[in-house]
Amino acid sequence: MTDTRQESLAALLGGRGGALDASLPPLAFVLGWLLGGRSIEVGALAAVACGVVVGGVRVARGGRPRALLLSVALVVVAAYVAVQTGRAEDFFLVQIFLNAASALVWSASIVVRWPLLGVVVGLITGQRFRWRRDPDLLRAYRFASWPWVAQYVLRVLVFGALWLAGEVVLLGIMRAALTWPLQVACIAVSWWVLRRTLPADHPGLRHPRTP
């Protein structure tokens, strides 16, 4: 029998494939931009083509078509913004805004006692929102959601500074460096916080103690 108390957050939230795939189109944009003589159009075409190929591979491996279409759409929007403004660094504006919005939403969810980490894990495990009736789990999810806020804020600060400086190549590099490696670290820290916050006798994430 699986020890559900020892079941890690990483196991529940899945692998890092999606986050890794998300870093490929920005790298393709930078590479296309450089090889194309700093042509934004060439970079945009390379990013969109990469996004479509990555999406196709993920669908072939059983990924969700709706989620993959959304990721491709975000690449298309980012490329469109860069082409329209004529500034290569503006390809990364969409990501800056999305991370800023995510930081705000996650912070708000903690304040109103609906921490998004609990919502996500609850839906994945099939317990839906029963965890909210467990004071220990609710408290643990609130504390463990703050590392997620921190990762979004870190991305906004780094990407924002590089965007202001017009550092296109560094933006591409840091987009990859702060995607799946940072997400893996965030999951690990959240799991550590959960285990430190929950009482020693708590049965685990899949078993909220409800009245």
Word description of this protein:
With 211 residues, the chain is an all-alpha fold. The chain has one domain (9-197). The chain has helices spanning 9-13, 17-22, 24-35, 40-60, 65-85, 93-111, 116-125, 135-165, 168-177, 180-197. The protein starts with 8 loop residues before the first helix and ends in a 14-residue tail after the last helix. 33% of the residues are buried. InterPro entries: UCP010219. This is DUF3159 domain-containing protein.
List keywords for this structure.
73% helix; mainly alpha; membrane; UCP010219; 211 residues; transmembrane helix; single chain; disordered N terminus
Q: What's the order of the H and E elements?
A: HHHHHHHHHH
Distance between the termini: 26 Å
- Figure out the total of helices: 10
Would you identify the regions where 5 or more consecutive residues have pLDDT less than 50?
1-6
Task: State Rg.
Answer: 19 Å
Structural class: mainly alpha
How much β-strand is present in the residues?
under 5%
Given the C-alpha coordinates, what overall shape results?
Answer: elongated
Count structural domains: 1
